[in-house]
Specification:
13 helices, Spore Coat Polysaccharide Biosynthesis Protein SpsA, Chain A, three-stranded parallel β-sheet, alpha/beta, single chain, 2 domains
Length: 310
């Protein structure tokens, strides 16, 4: 579990692992980055309360460095990828180990079940679980079990992590997707099953959401550049939408029919957002258009911006 500035959610994340009913030995390796809040103190309290919690330093604070540091300290042959923003569902580890054995997969994973605690966070959760928000990836919207390009977090046969050399430290984000790509290139299977769910806590406001999706878009661009075969319509939709909206808004100053592009997009996210948010209440529905727009256009801007060797 690589963590940075996770004072708010770290306790519930670690406890969701320690509460798992699993017949084998269990350890939780927490790689701690240089945080600005009480993350270090909370982690030390958790380790003092339960000997199964091990703390390791992650001086860079970068996710792949933390993951590789935790892997180096881990003692077992099944590795459960976890972060400080989530909670494992009951029976997660036991089910994952069974599916690993039944399928012979290198990595198994399930659904990223976004759950918010405020109206804004609930709106983000609804968007993340909808086709209008993040497309049709099974780990967001669910689906039938079977081979997959990637899964959320994942539970690995450690031997496969050795074969591919662990997480690529040059990927500040998208490191899970990139490593699953290498696993599949080496002949391993990445397996999705809806039996597994991890509760995910969304970002708390539009600014934080925009930063998250801008960075995600940048690293998806890096992934496509390094592995061109990985490109998909889902990755290209946000930058395409941004170009059409911006081009239509600017071009519409000279030729009014082009205004149909930004107006059409605004109508799509407004009508679609209100529709998918309606069953969650008026306060959630009212936030959906802004949430969807932020997710789409921030991702698109990040994708167009790229990483520049970061």
């Amino acid at each position: 579990m690589p963590i940075l500035n996770e004072e708010r959610h770290l306790g519930e994340a670690v406890r969701s692992v320690l509460a798992q009913e699993y017949a084998g030995e269990l350890e939780v390796v927490v790689a701690i980055g240089p945080s600005r809040d009480r993350t270090q103190e909370v982690a030390e309290e958790l380790a003092a309360a339960d000997s199964r919690v091990t703390l390791v330093d992650n001086p860079s604070g970068r996710t792949p460095d933390g993951l590789n540091a935790a892997l180096a300290a881990a003692r077992h042959e099944v590795i459960v990828r976890m972060d400080g923003h989530g909670e494992l569902s009951a029976g997660y580890i036991d089910t994952a180990v069974r599916v690993l054995q039944e399928t012979g997969a290198a990595n198994v994973g399930g659904v990223m079940l976004a759950e918010g605690q405020t109206d804004f966070e609930r709106a983000v959760a609804v968007a993340m679980g909808s086709r209008l928000g993040l497309g049709a990836a099974r780990f967001h919207v669910g689906g039938q079990p079977g081979p997959s390009k990637t899964v959320f977090l994942g539970v690995f046969q450690r031997d496969w992590l050795r074969r591919v050399g662990g997480y690529d430290p040059t990927y500040a984000r998208a490191q899970d997707w990139e490593m699953n790509w290498r696993i599949r290139q080496e002949g391993g299977t990445v397996w999705f099953t809806p039996e597994l769910t991890v509760t995910y806590r969304p970002r708390p406001d539009l600014q934080a959401l925009a930063r998250q999706y801008f960075r995600t878009g940048r690293w998806r661009r890096r992934l496509v550049q390094q592995h061109p075969e990985s490109v998909s319509a889902r990755y290209l939709a946000p930058p395409t939408a941004l170009l059409l909206v911006a081009g239509g808004a600017v071009g519409g100053l000279a030729w009014r029919p082009l205004l149909a592009l930004p107006l059409g997009y605004a109508a799509l996210v407004t009508v679609g957002g209100l529709a998918i948010g309606a069953k969650h209440g008026a306060r959630v529905a009212a936030r959906m258009p802004a949430v969807l727009t932020t997710m789409h256009l921030s991702w698109g801007a990040g994708f167009l911006r790229g990483v520049d060797g970061e």
